[in-house]
């Protein structure tokens, strides 16, 4: 009889030959041992899949998969596919270049079991890829005072990365990672949706992950004035608003659409393409008013061709 593991760790992998072993070794070193690790290669151009196969041969708890070619490229498609291949009662998302500290699974599992929770969220510290120096936390807030809610998560009053989360299979099985989001914002979108369900969750104080940060990624993350950044944020806000339609939360949908319109105006002023403009127009008409939708389009036209329209856009968002 095959024993089903308690925890399924799901990791998307792309071009991680030089870093993957350190991550997988940190999983092997866990004090909690009832786990499986579902590795999904996103058609890497290096030898990442060979590394995955090597670990699967050494330890049967590792499962090496390739993303099926009919699925959209990206970490989110790999995470969704990995979930389908998993069997554990609890789900742990993790990234292929981060380090899981030895008691990560033990502490998370014990908390979720003893307190009958749907999920727990631990804490993370960034570290420099170049010199290993600890750099601080990706999210700084009063964890013991934070109220876990979809709106608070959306407004960045609290937050966590995918590595921090351990949840029951039931709490995650009806929520998918949006495969249209290729880079930044994937976990943000996922957890905003997950928190729309009834849940019992807890934030733990324990730092149980070291998150690898590359110097060039810091520059990109902090360049909030770049058009690329604005386009990404606008896309995430529209896609999250669209995903929230099934939950019928008008206030939250309007909040995301309002942010989308603001970012879209800034793109139009810079003569840049506005992502999902036509789709967003329909959603704005539905969740604000038809009049607001047309005012939104007028503001974009004024911004692009006359460098005006800010007050018009403010009116569209009201």
From TrEMBL:
Which residue intervals define the domain Glycosyltransferase 2-like in the entry? 8-131
User: One Pfam family name from the record?
Assistant: Glycos_transf_2
Where does the chain cross the membrane? 287-307
What InterPro entries does UniProt report for this protein, alphabetically? Glyco_trans_2-like, Glycosyltransf_2, Nucleotide-diphossugar_trans
Q: Which keywords does UniProt give here?
A: Membrane, Transmembrane, Transmembrane helix
Entry protein name: Glycosyltransferase family 2 protein
């Amino acid at each position: 009889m095959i024993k089903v593991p308690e925890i399924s760790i799901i990791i998307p992998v792309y071009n991680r030959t030089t870093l993957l072993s350190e991550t997988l070794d940190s999983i092997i070193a866990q004090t909690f041992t009832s786990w499986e690790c579902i590795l999904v290669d996103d058609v890497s151009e290096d030898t990442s899949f060979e590394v995955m196969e090597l670990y699967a041969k050494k330890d049967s708890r590792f499962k090496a998969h390739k993303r099926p070619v009919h699925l959209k490229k990206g970490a989110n498609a790999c995470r969704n596919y990995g979930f389908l291949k998993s069997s554990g009662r609890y789900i742990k998302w993790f990234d292929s270049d981060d380090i899981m500290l030895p008691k990560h699974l033990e502490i998370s599992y014990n908390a979720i079991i003893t307190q009958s929770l749907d999920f727990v969220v631990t804490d993370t510290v960034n570290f420099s890829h170049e010199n290993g120096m600890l750099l601080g936390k990706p999210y700084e807030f009063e964890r013991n005072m934070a109220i876990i809610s979809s709106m608070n998560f959306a407004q960045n009053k609290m937050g966590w990365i995918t590595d921090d989360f351990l949840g029951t299979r039931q709490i995650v099985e009806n929520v998918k990672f949006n495969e249209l989001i290729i880079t930044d914002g994937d976990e943000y979108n996922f957890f905003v949706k997950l928190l729309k369900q009834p849940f019992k969750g807890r934030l733990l104080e324990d730092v149980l992950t070291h998150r690898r940060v590359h110097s060039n990624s810091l520059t990109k993350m902090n360049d909030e004035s770049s058009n690329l950044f604005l386009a990404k944020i606008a896309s995430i806000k529209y896609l999250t608003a669209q995903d929230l339609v099934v939950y019928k939360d008008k206030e939250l949908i309007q909040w995301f659409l309002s942010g989308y319109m603001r970012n879209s105006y800034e793109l139009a002023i810079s003569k840049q393409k506005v992502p999902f403009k036509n789709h967003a127009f329909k959603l704005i008409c539905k969740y604000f008013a038809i009049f607001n939708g047309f005012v939104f389009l007028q503001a974009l036209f004024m911004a692009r061709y006359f460098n005006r329209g800010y007050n018009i856009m403010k009116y569209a968002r009201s």
